[in-house]
Amino acid sequence: MDKRYQVFVSSTFVDLQNERQKVIHALLEQDCFPSGMELFPAANDDQWTLIKKVINECDYYLVIIAGRYGSIGPDGLSYTEMEYRYALDQKKPIISFIRDNPQGLPPNMTESTRSGQRKLAAFRALAKKKNCCFWDSPSELGRQVSWSLGKLIKSDPRVGWIRADEIPPPSRTGSPEELFAQSLIEFARSLASLQRDQTLLELRSWSSRLLHLIGALSERQELGQLAFAAAAVAQDRVAQASILIDDLGWSVHEFGDTPTGLQNVLEGLSLLDREIATRPSLDRAEVIALKVKALRHVANMRSLGAENLAESRHAFQEPRELAAELEPVSRALNVAQLAHSEALVIFSWVTAAMSGKRKLDPASLPALLDEAIGLAEDAERSFRSLGDVEREAKALKLKVDMLALVPQKELHREAAARLHRLELQIARHLR
Predict the structure, then answer these.
(1) Is 91 exposed, middle or buried, given 0-12, 13-18 or 19+ CB atoms closer than 10 A?
(2) What CATH number matches the domain at 176-282, 1.25.40, 1.10.238, 1.20.120, 2.40.50?
(3) What is the largest CA-CA distance in the chain?
(4) Rounded distance between C-alpha atoms, residue 302 and residue 306, angstroms
(5) For the chain, domain boundaries
């Protein structure tokens, strides 16, 4: 890439206008950007603040010293020396270009007072302690700048500037799934900033489950927040309810904040009930499917604090009855998801009881485990018949975990081998 550098040029002004022009010309020939007092005559505190800001932004600092000390600032130093000392403090690479024989200059280009002469002599002595060159004509000064700055850039390269269209795209690290989730959220943010609400809602409708499948929980939640705002603007209550149930409900629960997740799902349910009551023309099948999902999420989350297993399992009765109203494909999908969720609840109770964290009759544990395995198998078969390999794999994974507790180890090995093949198939599909 073609890098250019910004160079601050400091000097007195009236007596060195020709010299400054030579220096600026030399800098431009080196493809550098000159900055200096032509842009801001140093005359007050606000301009001094601006000068410091520009020095901070510059890569290199040049000072030209001849026969004048310059205008005095509030601290008794000239603005030229103030700039020099500030550049020193900021550790800028500095070159001083000092007039070789200032005594030979005309009177109007030298200091007329003893005080000015002493301050100029002290400033010259200070500048000589760092990198410096001497000159005795504007042309020689220009040549010195070209040669000295070129050497300084090679020995002390700085950040510099490049054209925006030459900047390579930022490199990203992470798995393909992580990079996809990051890019999707960046696109969603851009849609939100452009107030493209409908496009944002469509993006969320097809990508939310995909983010769930790849485990991008935080990205799914952020997408839900952006889409919820868009749905509110569009007054799409069903979309708001869906987002509360999934992206800001179940996903928040999976992230570890079950109380907030449960509260959002219940709010989504309430929103759906109000829509059903006030909009008779609503797509009833869509709303019922959302209610079944929400009630399933509620049953799963409340099972964590339930007093007994019967109470946890009873919570699945209402969504099962609602699912019976759905058309065959949607009914099969929702019934399978309910079976998978109930199996998971039973398994969590059984394992908690085995470790002494929950109370169940020890004699009932084998029968409960067999029942949970049967539910998981029902869900697995239904998902397979629907061609839903991701959900089939989740049900099979649950069955593998449960079969690890039964005496027939060959059943576990067989299911684990089938799960491995299915997970490879899903990975290839996602990539």
Answers:
(1) exposed
(2) 1.25.40
(3) 112
(4) 6
(5) 6-166, 176-282, 302-431
In total, the chain counts a number of residues equal to 431
Tokens of 299: 């049953």
Class of residue 11 by CB neighbours under 10 A (exposed 0-12, middle 13-18, buried 19+): buried
Give CA–CA dist 403/410, Å, rounded.
9
What are the structure tokens assigned to 365, written together? 């544990």
Tell me if 166 sits within 8 A of 1, measured CB to CB.
yes
Residue type present at position 95: I
d(CA 100, CA 83): 22
Angle, vertex CA 132, rays to CA 130 and CA 135, nearest 5: 160
Q: pLDDT tens, 52-97?
A: 888 998 999 999 999 999 888 888 999 999 999 999 999 999 999 9
**Can you give the pTM of this predicted structure?**
0.60
Measure the CA–CA gap between 72 and 390, rounded to whole angstroms.
Answer: 77
Rg of the chain (C-alpha set)? 37
